[in-house]
Amino acid sequence: MAAAIPVLLKTWLCLAFVLTVMADVILGDDDAPQAASEKGDSSLPWSDFRLPKSLLPMKYIVKLHPNISKSTFRGRVTMRLQVMASTDLIVFHAHKLKLCVKNVQYCKDARIGVKKTGYIEKLEMFYIKLSRPLCVDTIVDVDMSFKGSISPEAVGLFKTTYSHQSSDNSDPTEQVNAAVATQMQPIYARRVFPCMDEPSFTAAFEISIIREKHYSSLSNTALVSTTDASASCHGCVMDKFAKTPDISPHLVAMVVFENKAKITEMSGDYPINVFETTPKLPGYRNNIVNTAVRVFNFVKNYLDISEPPFKYVSEDGFGPFAYLFRLYS
Ligand SMILES: *[C@@H]1O[C@H](CO)[C@@H](O)[C@H](O)[C@H]1NC(C)=O
Hints:
The protein has 2 helices and 18 strands. The protein is mostly beta strands. The protein is globular and about 65 Å long. The protein binds 2-acetamido-2-deoxy-beta-D-glucopyranose.
């Protein structure tokens, strides 16, 4: 692949769509009535409730830029797909996003271009119809930008708050701080970035988050670098996280919160990070860690695993941390 000349098929087919229809469907049931009624609708390029298996995701490079004060987010995703069966159709999930296909890069055939793009609202699927079919055993990169709104409810990328007290007790009044977090399960990843949002479509994720300096961000894996992102927004930086092992999109987690909350790394049998929004006495903090270790030991014996299933504990009822799993590869 490396030797082939990458051909940029500049498409810039910007197709904006905003969906207002709330989907009330659960993936996972092959015999869902939607699937049956959709089949045979020849006007749509794809009508099955499940995604086609001709393309499988290998890797996603996701850059997310939430703006908490404006309750919006934007981002960029590159989906690297492996061609399992020859096809001219790329189908994936997206919901309540404004999407713009920037580029389809295919090493194999310079003459492949984008013929048509569209949205299948009922299935929450977006499709890209190519001018010629892709060959088996090749790789195609689909580069897209997207925009959306931060949800007030705990679905997709949502806004939340936590209260905080100053650590030196100089100001006993509680302050309310803003945060955004993700809740991707079971089918909400598609509301945060376009992806093949079915549990069996696992892939590696390389996640970056753009934030203002007085915020912090977390994701599934360890932070790799923090670089300047003032081109994206004034005084902003970008946190880049290590590549995850192959996981389903619904396991991706991201949190951005104001720096007033504190994370202390405690090492017992293994490191655990305690998320605190109000200062705790050391003994109290030890209690939290001991409880977490007991829970882990139970899960370890039950599931027969050696790695801790989580890396953060929060005693402050800051729910989003429930979704951060330890996934160091
Ligand atoms: C959010 O939007 C405001 C107003 O446009 C801007 O001043 C701020 O820098 C933005 N923050 C981020 C993180 O983009």
